[in-house]
Amino acid sequence: MALGPGKYDDECTKVREAIGADGVLLVVVSGSKGSGFACQADYATTLALPDILEHIAQQIRQDGKRQP
Known about the structure:
This protein is an alpha+beta fold. It has helices at 9-19, 43-66, and strands at residues 24-31, 34-40. It has one domain.
């Protein structure tokens, strides 16, 4: 979930602390607790995530078009 702790919140905390980040978005596909995500960021960044993710999706699509 985007607001409040989710099933991968502990793992997200470990990553954030290990790399000294202000924020982390962790996306898990078929993990030990199933698929899901965890987000630790300030409120403004959390609300900006849809735009950030759309930008990432565009980059992935462009990269996919360049691959044979």
